[in-house]
Specification:
The structure is a homodimer.
Chain A lengths: L5 E4 L1 H5 L9 H13 L4 E6 L12 H8 L6 E5 L3 H10 L3 E7 L2 H8 L3 H18 L4 E7 L12 H13 L4 E6 L6 H15 L6 E6 L6 H10 L4 E4 L19 H10 L8 H14 L9 H4 L11
Parallel strand pairs in A: 1-8, 2-3, 3-4, 4-5, 5-6, 6-7, 7-8
Chain lengths: 310, 310
């Protein structure tokens, strides 16, 4: 039996932060409502970074408040630091994701901190959360885990070391992210397998694969991760996201393509692909001129004697 | 150790036959020379169908003659019938590929014959080849093996039956083709594994996987096929090909993406990816307004401490 696979929507955060167009709060609410109606039960709705840096996400508090009205939806936000974590706790997000770069060079460029400093921040966030009495789950996304545009290769030993260090410092879930689209399927299998082994009894805490389609391998990487036991994937509707270092390059793996892949292989996702494709059309209309990704929307769901397999 | 994997170029046939632009014979020769210089050693250079049906490929005889001047290159052509096979033998192609639809509905639409009638044609072609004294290899590509836009699902039993029937009727090599982009990785593994098992001592004669990227799964399917022992893939530079039933949909899996995937996973292909990307640029310039595919050309080969991994 194929297990249930969770597809977490990150388009409202990782997607929208990387494009020019700023969606209105109402549009974001409409997106969240429709994604929820289509069956999505985990959505990263924004991030708590200074609005001058990411005006696209300045309304995150209001978006969280709306998303929390939908029963059974896990509402998550990205937080880059302690201040962001305070905001996440204030608004009552169900989970918060702290990015931790496996590449020291990327860490310096992205958050102006070393990985060790980020681990200290993580411990402070954990203490804050514990003191607050909140049940907000603390997740660490290990970015550039498969390579880095600045430093190139990232040693697998270092990735595994940081995963363990993150759990030791207070993270309750961890994930591996191919931030720049360098991963290949063999590497995905090898690194996730090594990480599962190294985590031992804590292996279930490594829950998520986050892949970008920058070089076209995202779906092959999803499939590779599935084969070694990964059960949750981040994805962005219409593949929005892009990459500042590669003009025209695609961004996050597209939600609808991941759901199609999983559907077609017989995994259950709880998500209605047709509804997702309808939502994609709506969002594409909101983002004129933006580079969109994904494939299944073009040719549509295959004809099958047994009916559309969604 | 990862085995050597062959990437056969089919862009000059499957690609060019599906687009509007007609490349000149000189352009085709330049393409073949550059693909050869980049390391490709199997190229399907055209097909012997009536020129009024496919004016794009009307110069196939001249293109074959040129390609045959390149030492060690296997020059193949597609032949839809006995007359095409006669031409292939006349011009001295090294191999000829006869398409055989696993879907009866597709067979009727594509060649106006039943699969059984095509098997009879195959036997006639084999007799002709044997009588001629030629060493031209006869290959059968089992099209719509993973599903059909007209009839929907194609029974796996029927696919396996036709593979065996094709070998019994005189084919010396067979391949499975996802002509319409319906395949998913689980299906690819299942069907190739079933076919290898059913062929028994003749399993090495099932050599090739032919995938279209119509729904974005082509690279995931290549990877799935690799995992069950497939060692040759058809691919089209720049992913040209399209699909007449899906405007804007991508065509064959792109050669450069397949080579990138294989390179990155440590397989040897003998092909220089940088040279292929240079050629892609040339061909893109020859095809203004045509829908091209592929991903790696956008963002480029990843930075690696150990240097570009081509």
């Amino acid at each position: 039996m194929n297990p249930h696979i969770t597809v977490r929507e990150v388009g409202l955060r990782d997607g929208l932060q990387s494009i020019q167009t700023i969606l209105s709060t109402e549009q974001k609410k409409t997106w969240i409502n429709a994604a929820y109606a289509a069956g999505q039960r985990e959505i990263e709705v924004g991030s708590f970074v200074p609005a001058r840096l990411l005006p696209q996400l300045a309304d995150t508090a209001e978006v969280v408040a709306h998303a929390k009205t939908l029963p059974g939806l896990e509402v998550s936000v990205l937080v880059p630091n302690l201040k962001g974590a305070e905001r996440a706790l204030e608004v009552g997000a169900h989970s918060m994701l702290l990015p931790l770069s496996a590449s020291a060079a990327h860490s310096a460029a992205n958050v102006r901190k070393t990985p060790e400093e980020m681990l200290k921040t993580l411990a402070e966030i954990r203490a804050l959360r514990d003191a607050s009495g909140s049940s907000c789950v603390i997740e660490v996304g290990l970015s550039t885990a498969f390579g880095c545009t600045i430093q190139g290769d990232v040693p697998e030993d270092e990735v595994v070391r940081l995963l363990i260090a993150a759990l030791d410092a207070g993270a309750e879930r961890v994930g591996l992210a191919d931030t720049v689209g360098y991963a290949d399927p063999a590497q995905v299998k090898r690194l996730f397998s090594r990480a599962f082994d190294a985590l031992g009894t804590r292996r279930d805490l490594l829950s998520c694969g986050h892949f970008h389609d920058t070089r076209g391998l995202a779906l092959a990487n999803v499939m590779a991760a599935l084969e070694v036991g990964v059960t949750k994937f981040d994805a962005s509707l219409a593949g929005i996201g892009g990459c500042p270092h590669a003009p025209g390059a695609s961004g996050n793996v597209s939600t609808e393509d991941v759901v199609y892949l999983l559907d077609r292989m017989g995994y259950s996702t709880g998500i209605d692909l047709s509804a997702l494709l309808t939502l994609r059309k709506q969002i594409a209309a909101w983002l004129p001129g933006e580079q969109l990704g994904g494939s299944i929307w073009r040719a549509g769901i295959p004809r099958s004697v047994s009916g559309a397999r969604t």
